Amino acid sequence: MALAAGRAMLMRSGVRLGTQAAARGGNGARRFMNHRVVVEPNTVPGVAVIKFKNPPVNSLTLEFLTEFVICLEKLENDKTFRGVVLTSDCPGIFSAGLDLREMCGKNPAHYAEYWRAVQEMWLKVYLSNLVLVAAINGTSPAGGCLIALSCDYRVLADNPRYRMGLNETLLGLVVPFWFKDTLVNTIGHRASERALQLGLLFPPAEALQLGMVDQVVPEDQVQSTALSVMTQWLAIPDHVRQLTKNMIRKATADHLIKHQEADIQNFINFISRDSIQKSLQVYLENLKQKKH
Amino acid sequence: MALAAGRAMLMRSGVRLGTQAAARGGNGARRFMNHRVVVEPNTVPGVAVIKFKNPPVNSLTLEFLTEFVICLEKLENDKTFRGVVLTSDCPGIFSAGLDLREMCGKNPAHYAEYWRAVQEMWLKVYLSNLVLVAAINGTSPAGGCLIALSCDYRVLADNPRYRMGLNETLLGLVVPFWFKDTLVNTIGHRASERALQLGLLFPPAEALQLGMVDQVVPEDQVQSTALSVMTQWLAIPDHVRQLTKNMIRKATADHLIKHQEADIQNFINFISRDSIQKSLQVYLENLKQKKH
Amino acid sequence: MALAAGRAMLMRSGVRLGTQAAARGGNGARRFMNHRVVVEPNTVPGVAVIKFKNPPVNSLTLEFLTEFVICLEKLENDKTFRGVVLTSDCPGIFSAGLDLREMCGKNPAHYAEYWRAVQEMWLKVYLSNLVLVAAINGTSPAGGCLIALSCDYRVLADNPRYRMGLNETLLGLVVPFWFKDTLVNTIGHRASERALQLGLLFPPAEALQLGMVDQVVPEDQVQSTALSVMTQWLAIPDHVRQLTKNMIRKATADHLIKHQEADIQNFINFISRDSIQKSLQVYLENLKQKKH
């Protein structure tokens, strides 16, 4: 907790953890080794491929979020890297989004820590100085969709079983305003109104038409397309590209930063309700029974 | 006047008139009986159909607006209803919009009352807890278009004579900023700039392409399509859908609420000008002569 | 300089220079004669055609900007004119945008004067009471694109060599936020994010699809189409059209007006850097050698 809070403060004050700082990490060191987030040797100079490896569905557990952010920070601080492709190591799923077990049967302090980690992950991805290209090789609902929407470019596998969208209302949840802001920035106000209320998950052709992704390609070309798109982005000098990106995205990020504590409190209040806890328990029980 | 102001205050403070309160309504009771707004027995459980019946063109008179808002409030407070289809009982026209007779030859107090009623109607529709689907079975210019744009979903009859748009400039009027905000939220900034300045009325195919409506269907299927769309919306739990809707629409509504009194004063000043009064008189004279 | 500052102040306080004031202009009079901005005799009543004539590429020098603004002010104050078509007298190019020579090897006072002139030009075009239609008969990168985007309607010649976009990052520059705001208002947030970071220049078909222009027509019909579009716009009474335009565009203009001095300071700081000055020098040297 203390470490996570410390990280948040460091990020806020503009100081970033270097590779060494992350490795130092005291008794938390083992926790931050990249078990769930694998960085592949880059085939394109200056580009790393981050593979989400948190089976079975890359759900955004607290540990996954922490590893993912540390991993991005390392790459940002390593001047040999200018761009990152985000993709999944779990067949058929990009990321299932927030882990409901982090929101169920825990205490308020845990909910606060978890929600802050979700916020910090989004701020890190949305404002990254690196070029981020999502190679979406599986279904990406809810928080998985958010990660993709926060990249600079999205390539989706042309598989009708892969659906993408912010489907929180289907789970009895309300998306936080910054999920909404990110979607509105991508597909516009009207399409977002409908998609968010109905919790719509779009197949590739519809996702492309809505502008939720930039390209749909055959499944075996997702990563190669992402790498070739990356080349186009890396043709631009980093400094002016970063300043331009920041100028466009800053207002949206500031909206969260300004209301960050209230957003955490709001999450705790909502998730602590008996009715929400009960429905999450039922949902998780059903999931467990399906597996057996 | 006093009653309308009282209602506005009640709405502002979060208290809503129940069925009984509306029925009670003292010596104003008869006025609020649904003469101009007919609620049809619902064929789909939980869904009411509101038919505008203010012949010949469903213009938004003060009485119509008052009945419409009371009717929506009754349905919102009756827990058996979760969704409402809005449609017209007048052949060929959804609603002609604001009633120019309410703006012509009256005193400032009347203009104030009328404009507040228009504002309150929009706030009620735009932020309704009910799912609102517009079954647009006729032309819908100006205020008629605004009502449709403020619903959650729009189904338009495929009849090239039915046109839709905010054509105020053609009548020598300027739309208030919240009409503009509603249009921008629906079709975007650039399309709104052009449509509003030119007072464009779009035939169905163009309205669909612009995103001003969600679906265009044969005229005899408008209501059945609206009801079937409603089923999709009612599949979402009311509570999370309402919170999500409010999150998306709140900023736009707050924009009006914050400037509500200034907007009324602005309307009075504009409409009281000799030049405007004169052109409205000419317009209304012409309309009268056409009828004879 | 003093004159330019005085003009800026007059504009801010709502007073506008009449034809006479511009003609008076003391010892600066000759400077403001229309050498670089030619007003053609109008073929359509009430409509002037402004031709940019600053060869070879209509770059936005300080003198050009000053003439252009004075010319627009004259037309605004001459009640016989209601609309203006903006087009180019230089073959193959609408305008190459900001003149890099104004940003290179000069002192901070010059940079301040130049940047204020760019700002004032944009405010004048973006909020003009006249109907402005861009007849884009050539390539329009950077500031040239900005002028077109700030008109009320855009007609582009169907020539694949004519490209349009805000390509500042390709020149190692960052667009100011109000260039970004203008683009977002026209093509939306997501398309702007990509276009601005990559400095994309779009051929006519793509510019049309993105909504960056309203119409693409054969090259010899650009001006006639612009004039015929103008007729549609002039069918609307000036007063309500102007109020409507102002209502839609005011927030975007106010965004700059509120931060105008900071934006100037920001420009001076950025452009004064050694690295930027050096890369501009190299760029201008290369340009000079190409000519010989």
UniProtKB/TrEMBL annotation, chains A, B, C:
<dbReference type="InterPro" id="IPR029045">
    <property type="entry name" value="ClpP/crotonase-like_dom_sf"/>
</dbReference>
<dbReference type="InterPro" id="IPR001753">
    <property type="entry name" value="Enoyl-CoA_hydra/iso"/>
</dbReference>
<comment type="pathway">
    <text>Lipid metabolism; fatty acid beta-oxidation.</text>
</comment>
<dbReference type="Pfam" id="PF00378">
    <property type="entry name" value="ECH_1"/>
</dbReference>
<dbReference type="GO" id="GO:0006635">
    <property type="term" value="P:fatty acid beta-oxidation"/>
</dbReference>
<keyword id="KW-0496">Mitochondrion</keyword>
<keyword id="KW-0276">Fatty acid metabolism</keyword>
<comment type="subunit">
    <text>Homotrimer.</text>
</comment>
<keyword id="KW-0809">Transit peptide</keyword>
<keyword id="KW-0443">Lipid metabolism</keyword>
<dbReference type="GO" id="GO:0004165">
    <property type="term" value="F:delta(3)-delta(2)-enoyl-CoA isomerase activity"/>
</dbReference>
<keyword id="KW-0007">Acetylation</keyword>
<dbReference type="InterPro" id="IPR018376">
    <property type="entry name" value="Enoyl-CoA_hyd/isom_CS"/>
</dbReference>
<comment type="similarity">
    <text>Belongs to the enoyl-CoA hydratase/isomerase family.</text>
</comment>
<keyword id="KW-0413">Isomerase</keyword>
<dbReference type="GO" id="GO:0005759">
    <property type="term" value="C:mitochondrial matrix"/>
</dbReference>
<comment type="function">
    <text>Key enzyme of fatty acid beta-oxidation. Able to isomerize both 3-cis (3Z) and 3-trans (3E) double bonds into the 2-trans (2E) form in a range of enoyl-CoA species, with a preference for (3Z)-enoyl-CoAs over (3E)-enoyl-CoAs. The catalytic efficiency of this enzyme is not affected by the fatty acyl chain length.</text>
</comment>
<protein>
    <recommendedName>
        <fullName>Enoyl-CoA delta isomerase 1, mitochondrial</fullName>
        <ecNumber>5.3.3.8</ecNumber>
    </recommendedName>
</protein>
